[in-house]
Amino acid sequence: MGVLLPCVLGDGRGTTLSEVLSVPEVRGAGRTFLEPDREAVAVTEPRVAVVGGGVTGLLAAAHLADADAEVTVLEASDRVGGQLCTGLVGGQPVDLGAEALHLGAPGVAELIERAGLTADLVDARPGPTMVATRRGLRQLPGGMGPSGPSRLWPVATSRILSLRGLVRAAAEPAVRSSDLDGDVAVGEYLARRFGRELVDRLLDPLLGNLHAGDVDRLSLAAATPQLDRLARQHRSLVLARRGGGRAAPPRFATVVGGLSRIATALAADPRIVVRTSTPVQAVRRTAAGYLVDVGVPLEVDAVVFALPARSCATLLEPLAPRAAEPLRELRANSVATVAAAYPRGALRGLPAADANGILVPRSLGRPLNAATLLTNKWPHLDDGGSFLVRLSVGDDAERPLGQRSDAQVLDLAHAGFARITGIASPPLDATVQRWQRGMPQLEVGHRDRLGEARRQLEGEALVLAGASCDGVGIINCIRSAEASAARTLEQLERRRVAA
């Protein structure tokens, strides 16, 4: 137990990027870049550096290559993918970052098709999500999402709210509307509509866990843009959603071997040069464009920054200090994912035995934020050998994650899982993956701060992208990649016309 494994690429064998790409270094006139195994040729296409090899950076690079740009992706770590990260637990590849795809969301099917992985998709099994309460586990009410309930009857029959809390939530259609003047916190707004109890017992474990943050700090406009639009257009959220009818249930899926295979496939695009273990030391402006310092100079016409906000601010400080300033104000929280293999029958007879997931509100004084019961959720992980579980923990008031060893993080996660499920067996095998400041916090005022940073870069071919700017999750990364590639091409065209 407690064997720690690094993130590996999705084939489960720890394939290195150099084995996938085999790209030698080529030196050209006044610049250094990488090319696939072909002779160096004169470059006439616009040259773009993408700083950050997560899914946003890789997909932005692919869109730029679609437009015939010459793209180099620069990744500081020794692997691509960012939070598309896979580790081995109990002999099986398990995702330690992003864990599922919403196939109905815009761009997701296209991303999988681009990666050539459509045939390797596996749909999630139907199964309940449970919510931990002081009276035991309860099933998450139907229609309850990260932006609040669309129907009140399932909430009323869930036995999660008290009678007083139910009466308050049911009064939402009659609550007097108040105009939204600027941005507000999601928790504050929904407490105004449905009452504090619904926020603490249902919204917090859903939206709070999704962002690893505090719903009373998360921005209504940035973290839940659809809710923000609904709130500004309608007096009652429940009546507005009822008028739209019931949406089809989302189709969630994953990729056999892990979602990191998406990153591996994007990085293997022969039109794109990818350099891992290559931190960017500085970006400088030149008469013709920009010089990206990675130990040797890389001359480019544009730079896409697809990396954490504070790292981006450090690189932008010499170039555009007024753009760097608001980026430094964007916070990120630390979390850890613990993937554990338990004895096959360890949950038999317990309330959580058939669940796909468990959410834990902060009000329970949680050491554990959430659990995904992988063997129940994904048929390809149900091999009969062991019962696989993903556990998520974050900083707490007692001691931050950074002050705990991996063994202590594992013990903390298991103790929380045992407390809410009653499981008696310790894990047989486990791995800990830390995401130090890995969860961007889209807090109140986020859009204003980001908008100011982008305004300060107007006229420059310097583009901001990634989860720190545009939100967590693969869907937001897809949107960010598309938008950043479009902005980059627009700036390049303006410069071409001006020249």
Question: Your description of this structure?
Answer:
This protein has 499 residues and is α+β, with helices and mostly antiparallel strands. It has 3 domains: 17-82 and 259-330 and 443-498, FAD/NAD(P)-binding domain; 146-243, protoporphyrinogen ix oxidase, domain 3 (Orthogonal Bundle); 332-440, Polyamine Oxidase, Chain A, domain 2 (Alpha-Beta Complex). 33% of the residues lie in helices and 22% in strands. It has 18 helices and 24 strands. Helix 13 runs antiparallel to helix 16. Mean pLDDT is 89; it is low at 1-6 and 8-43.
Describe how the helices and strands are arranged.
Blueprint: H1 17-21, E1 25-28, E2 31-34, E3 47-51, H2 55-66, E4 70-74, E5 86-89, E6 92-95, E7 101-102, H3 108-115, E8 121-123, E9 129-133, E10 136-139, E11 144-145, E12 148-149, H4 153-156, H5 163-170, H6 186-194, H7 196-211, H8 220-223, H9 225-233, H10 237-243, E13 252-255, H11 260-267, E14 272-275, E15 282-285, E16 290-293, E17 297-300, E18 302-305, H12 309-316, H13 321-328, E19 332-342, E20 357-359, E21 370-373, H14 374-377, E22 387-394, H15 406-421, E23 429-440, H16 446-456, E24 462-464, H17 467-470, H18 474-498
Parallel strand pairs: 3-4, 3-18, 4-14, 9-20, 18-24
Antiparallel strand pairs: 1-2, 5-6, 7-13, 8-13, 9-10, 11-12, 15-16, 16-17, 19-22, 19-23, 20-21, 21-22
Helix pairs in contact: 2-11, 2-18, 3-11, 6-7, 12-13, 13-16
